Every structure is written in structure tokens, then in C-alpha cells.
Amino acid sequence: MPYTTSSHVNLTISANDSTLPVFVSIIATPAAVINGSDVIINANVEDNVQVDSTWANITLPDNSSHFISVGSLPYTYTTNVSQIGTHIVTFYANDSSGNNATTVKTFTTAPPVNLTIDVNVGFGVTSDIDLIVYLRGTTDVIATRENLNGSESILLPDVPVDLFFNTTFGNDSRSTTINNFNLSASTGGEISFSDPTVSGYLTVYAVNTSFTFDNASVEISYENSGYSDEANLQLHKCDNFNMATETCLSGFNEITSSATHDTDNDKFTYVTTSFSGFGIKQYVAPTVTETSSTGSGGGGGGCAPGYELVDDKCVKIVVSEEIQSQLIDITFALDDLIIQSSDELVAIVTFESFGTESTPVNLTFIILDESGNEVYRVDNNITVTTEEVMRWNYETLGELPEGKYIAVLHTLYNIDVFDEFTQEFEIGKRKGITGRIIEFIETVNPGEKLWYVLVFVLSFSFIIIFWHFVKRHKKRKNRLNNKYTLQKLPE
Description:
mainly beta, Immunoglobulin-like, Chondroitinase Ac, Chain A, domain 3, 5 domains, seven-stranded antiparallel sheet, 3 helices, 35 strands, 49% strand
């Protein structure tokens, strides 16, 4: 039986592919540009079988369209100078099975505006300050600048932005973000950063700016601060921090409850409407001992004396022995608030100890002028056993011109207990006749002062007696006149 000749047949079998292509990434950057500038557009697409083609359609603010091919290489699109506003980029991708996918990204064109920033860093501070300009409320970068220090001019599209300043002081990282910044309304201004050392604080971050803003966020890292008890770290704010003298003029207030404490990244984040000084300190908490004692005497909520009601339980607050051994009360006052010359300036500092041990106290005396400039600073110390009174004469102050000043005292004891005292005073001539007399007496020879004082007292006493005599005489005369008038009435 004869054999037939066989032939080869090629068959192509296609699987039923219904999986859409996937956009791994898309870009249209920068997210905002000056009209007439370039925008880089591209898309990275993957498919389970094979990507066939990728393209994009750019819809301009006037609703006209422009098709471009993307995927293999980024496409550089030059924006139209006359087209100002939002551009919509619609990306398309299809695969060899005919499946199509789309996604959208936008960019904005706007007229140019020049932002001038004067960046200042605290005296003697080494810092790297970098600026990232984001499109408002996004992570889309518009512009970047590195190692700012001094005046910097940046040409930007006039759109709402967020200004992110990343500051690095040694190994410590801090950042400031001014949110929803209006470029056209604030084309120039100054911003200052400092890393001051303030007694009692692990780290302090000071920020000040002349720019107007609605709100800002501040991030402070404490990773390298040397803390030992993360659970008891607190964030404090000084509302009036003098950048020139690195001095808090208002005192620090705790704001921990209003901040976000990120223990994973060792930092605090705080949203604020004003800048100044922000400090992190470690609070040494008292020991709390629970007890079942109750009663109607002393403590709150019906607890026995010496106990307080906490979470429906009477608890006794026991201060640890280390803290209890060094407790003092400090007061600060100037002897006279109006003086003629700086050599008359005297401060009285009192110390009262409540602890069981002698307490070393570090003191810093500071004088600030009306502009907040530091004109005097001297460090001193004292050991307080029971009660101490210190008379500080500001001996090396030198002669100051007439005007208003602020006397500041910083105290530090028990490792991290920091206090700040302030008192305003004025250097000028005394007012009134009495003031002039006192000024004259103070200029005469010390040996003659007693005689002048005696003459002044006797003269003043004579005037008072004479005035009293005249008044009584006038009153008596009026009574006689009234009597005579009454007797003449019958006629």
C-alpha cells in the first residue's frame, strides 16, 4: 500500500489575555513651571505579555490638544507662552492583546515671580540649610537650592507653594515648612535659624522670619541629644526668643500635648502660627505610690492629707530622694527701676533652700537694650545651704546711655532645673522737684549730704506748718465774717 507524503503545519495558539497594562510610574515635571518653559513627560509601563505602544494627550488650558509618544525615552514638552493654567496629561498604553489602560497627571504654567530670601544662621553656628519648593499640599518639587547662607534669588512660577527648609546642625536634623506660601504677596524677606545652647534643655531650635504665613510645621530631632528617658521628653516653646542674644525673653511653655511625638524617628513635629524658640527637655517625674487611705481631710476628692485623687484612687506623690535633696526657691528684683547711671544698678537675688543638701547654683546675669541687643553678660555661681541673699552690682557694665533696658537672670541647679527672670529698668533723669533735689544731694560731697538732707527736711516741715497755719487762719476769718453777716440781718 503506497504511503502519502506528509506536510508540516504551523499553528499559533493565543491565550485569552484580559490583563491590562500597568503604569509603574508617570512623570510630568516640574509640577509647575513658568509659561514657555519645558516639562519632562514620560511613563513606565509593564504588561504580563507585551506592551505594544504608549502615548499621551496633553490638554491645554484653552482645551486644545497635543499628542506625544512616550515610553522609550522621556518627552520634553515646551509649554506655550500664551497658555497659563492647568495642563492635563492623559497617558495611554495598550498591549499586544488589545488591552488598553489610561491614567492622568497634571502640571501648571504661570507667570514668573522672583523670590528673594535672606537666610541667616546663628553666630558661631555651622549649618547646612537646603530649600525645597513644593507645589502646595503635594510632594511635587518645583525648585531646590542647597547650602543657603545669605541672599538667594529664585525665579519661580507664581503658584501657591510650600517652602521646606532642611537645617542640619552637626549631626542634628531640624526642618521648617512654611505652608501655603503666597509668592506674589511675599516676594522678599528674611528667615533666620539658630542652634542655641539653653541651660536645662537637651536641644533648642530657634526660627524667625519676616515673611507672612498662615501656618508652618517644625520638626526637631533629638536622636543625638543624649536623652536617657524618651517617655519623659517634653517640647517647650518660647514665644519671644531673641535671636541676636540667644535669650528667651518670655520664658518657655510646655506644648507637648499639642505636638506629635514620633518615637520611631526620634523627633517632635509641631504646627504653629508663629516662630520663635523650640526646646526639648527631659522631665524628671516624681514617684507615685498608690495607697488605699481615704478620709475627709486634706487632699482632693475626699483623700487623706498628703494624698491626691488620681483615676478614682487616692495616691501619695513622693518626690524622689535625689530631687528632694536639692530644692530651692529663687527671687530676683532690681533695687531701683529708674536710675541716673548704670553704676547705680543693683540686683537683689534671694535663695531659700527646702532640700536636705547644699545646692550649687549657676547664675548668668544679662542686660539687653531696647532692641534686644546684649550689652552685658557675666557668669557666676553660689552654693545655697539654707538662705542666701546676693547683691549684684554689675561692676563691669560700664556707662550706658539713657534709655530703657531689660535685666535678665538665668539660674541652673539640680542638673536640669532652669529658671529665667526678667526686670525692666530705665536710665534717665528723675522727674519733678523732689527728683531734682535728690539729684542735687547725690552730687555733693558725701560728708555734707547729712546737712543738706537735714536742711531739706526742716524746710519742708516749715512749709507744711506755714501752709497749715494759713489754712486755719483763713477758715477762722470766714467764720467771723459769716457771724457778722447773720447779726446784721434784722436791720
